[in-house]
Amino acid sequence: MKIKGGLKTRLLIGIAIVAFAYLRKCSQQEVNPYTGKTQAVSLSPEQEIAIGLQQAPVMTQQHGGLYPNENAQALVDKVGAKLVNNTIAKKSGYQFDFHLLRDEKTINAFALPGGQVFITHALFSQLKNEDQLAGVLGHEIGHVLGKHSNERITDANFWKLLTMGASVGADLGQLANNIGQQTLLKNGRGDELESDELGVKLMIDAGYNPENLIGVMEILKAAAGPNRIPEFQSTHPDPENRIEKIKEAIRKYKK
């Protein structure tokens, strides 16, 4: 059976695009010095920092601005600085800044690439002590050191190219896109567990009690309520499973 010229050309172009996407991702592989994990990353630390600084005002505005209390912000800054200056984070080259957001409804904390770390007052107000705050901020520093945003951006670009190649070659673009989304979902759960482990190590090295990170998980569990989404439908592991992994990390790093 002969393949028509137009279709043959499309197949060759599609194969070339897929091959390029694969080779480029292979060339981006490197070992993360903080996790020991081999990952594909396409952004330099300077680019990560630039993206974080550019997006920080946008994220702040989306959460109602900064919380208007200098003492509360000073506590966040103090704990953040202690976690950075006494741990592996200090030599990372990232520019860590810590922001207490005005948001009183959303119990959340997150980090942008390059070191911009945020915690909402809704979560901050439920923390019982400085060690729990260190647990939250340590976890978010872990996302930065783990280069998780960098990895997600690299993966997204890979799947865009793969989808383009499959679409051109054999109209399989939707299938490739679906596979890509599933992969990103799985990695997202792994990122959370990895950041929990890094957070435990950072807490111990900075002189905080890592057991308090378990208390943070209890707060998140209570906030989600009895009708929380099952783990397999969420990008985050269930708090109960995270607690078990945190206990393992404590046994691993605490001497």
* Counted beta strands: 5
| Helix-strand makeup class | mainly alpha
Query: In this structure, how is the largest beta sheet organized?
Result: 3 strands, mixed
Query: For the residues shown, what is the average pLDDT?
Result: 80
Helix content percent band: 55-70%
Q: List the helices and strands in order.
A: HEEHHEEEHHHHHH
Morphology: globular
What is the number of helical segments per DSSP (H or I, 4+ residues)? 9
Straight-line distance between termini: 69 Å
Q: What proportion of the residues form beta strands (DSSP E)?
A: 5-15%
Strand order of the largest sheet: 3-5-4
Poorly predicted tracts of residues? 168-187, 230-235
List its traits.
two-stranded antiparallel ribbon; single chain; three-stranded mixed beta sheet; mainly alpha; 255 residues
Notes on the protein architecture:
With 255 residues, this protein is mainly alpha-helical. The protein is 63% helix and 8% strand. It is built from nine helices and five strands. It has a three-stranded mixed beta sheet with strand order 3-5-4. Strands 1-2 form a two-stranded antiparallel ribbon. Helix 5 packs across helix 8 and helix 8 (212-224) packs antiparallel against helix 9.
